[in-house]
Amino acid sequence: MWDKLLDQFLTGMIVQDRLSVTYPDGTTRDYGPATGDEAHLALTGNTTVRALILNPDLGLGEGYMDGRITPQECTLDDVLKIIIRNRFSGRLPSWMLMADRARFHMRSFVQRNAPRASRQNVAHHYDISDDLYAMFLDADMQYSCAYFRDDTMTLEEAQAAKKAHIAAKLCIRPGMRVLDIGCGWGGMALTLAGEYGCDVTGITLSENQLATAQKRADAAGLSDRIHFNLQDYRHVSGTFDRIVSVGMLEHVGVPNFDTYFERVADLLDPDGVALVHTIGRSAPPMAHSSWINKYIFPGGYVPSLSELALPMEKSGLWQTDIEIWRLHYARTIRQWRNRFDENIHEISSMYDDRFVRMFRYYLTVCILAFEHQMQAVYHLQLAHKRTAVPLTRDYIYAADTAAKPTPVREMAQ
To answer: What is the pTM of this model?
Structure first.
């Protein structure tokens, strides 16, 4: 029965390319026209077929993790590219459409992300081990989209360009008080304090990231300019000249968007500027990946711009600039995956095969989401006053092409 249901499902869904599937009984069936890209999957065990019917997203990811779903004479990229490209092109069975709608409408419950739950969700992914992330991130441990101003940039150069681009949008000046919401391992805070002379408060819910960020600030001699705290954005007090938040809004959850932008407005000085860097959808909202929610980012969600527009409007803040980065994150994650593969033997000595396959699947599916789905990175520049930033973008690009600023401490010597 399950084989027949999967056969019907794939017959309706695959309308371009060619996907061949070898079933547990050894039978191979082809789906889609004999044109375009081709890929071949082998399935082991009837429970695998059943899982693909009940929840295709979760079943595919778990099947790959467990070694029950394997690409044959092709790569994981080949398989996922065809599946992603056909997901919204073909015809899905009514029960799958109903399940998608149910997951979509459960967002308000699943993504409540109260402070305690938010801390647990963050720990699930970010408190694994700094050693793992150090093997595929750049030296500054930037775990967010880089900015490739040209095709020749290395990952390190593109991550530095990202930070400089954000600093330019913030119109940073020495002595400014900056709040970094979701500061990660401290790279942005270190840059704003060391190269631009700001006083930075960085907040995170990850104990690993907090410890590493504090060590980095001490080693750089910037402990007097940077203060890192294990703190929820809802519990911060005071006001700041500038607010920056990179790769954190994806963890807020739909029920909390109003609160998030209200807090940005409350914490931002009347003359201040805020910059929110987030993954987003350039399309109507949809249910988030159940596999990503279970294994990578519990409580996470990639919002559509339409879901952010009303909370921003209700906050009373001006949307002084909205910029959209399209393929920058795909390039970033491809470089992460290359480095992950280069260190695969060492990573395999630290984690079991299932974890390694899980993490590689995560990197791969994210690459292809940015290449083949309506997924991008948004820069939301916000301010209380319409005159808080210049009226054209010239000031941003002039700063992008300028020489790297001399660290404030070097200037004092």
So the answer is: 0.93
Burial pattern 58-90, b for ≥16 Cβ within 10 A else e, equals: bbbbbbbbbebbebeeeebbbbbbbbebbeeeb
DSSP class of residue 185?
T
Say what the pLDDT of residue 390 is: 96
Tell me what pLDDT residue 36 has. 87
Separation between Cα atoms, residue 276 and residue 353, nearest integer Å: 36
Contacts of 58 (CB under 8 A, 6+ apart): 51, 290, 291, 294
Ordered mean pLDDT values, 10 residues apiece, the chain (413 residues) = 92 95 97 92 96 95 98 97 89 78 74 77 83 97 97 96 98 98 98 98 96 97 97 97 97 94 98 98 92 92 96 98 98 98 97 97 97 97 98 90 54 33
Q: Return phi, psi of residue 179, to 5°.
A: -105, 125
pLDDT of residue 377: 98
Using a 10 angstrom Cβ sphere, with 0-12 exposed, 13-18 middle and 19 or more buried, the burial of residue 135 is middle
The Cα–Cα gap between 258 and 64 comes to 37
**Do 167 and 191 form a contact (C-beta atoms < 8 A)?**
yes
SS3 state of residue 378: strand
Token couple for 188: 């942005």
**Of 12, 58, 54, nearest to 290 (Cα)?**
58
Token duo for residue 283: 């399309």
Structure tokens at 210: 């907090």
Whether 183 is a known active-site residue: answer no
Question: What is the identity of the amino acid at 352?
Answer: D
Q: Six-digit token pair at 127?
A: 């408190």
- How many other C-beta atoms are found inside a 10 Å radius of the C-beta of residue 9? 20
Count of C-beta atoms within a 10 Å radius of residue 287: 17
pLDDT at 119: 78
Write down the pLDDT at residue 409. 44
315 vs 318: CA distance, rounded Å: 9
CA 167/CA 326 separation, integer angstroms: 20
| Through-space distance between the first and last CA atoms of the chain, rounded to whole angstroms | 77
Per DSSP, 256 falls in state: G
Distances (CA, A) of 2 to 8, 22, 37, 77: 10, 14, 26, 26
At residue 329, what are phi and psi to the nearest 5 degrees?
-75, -35
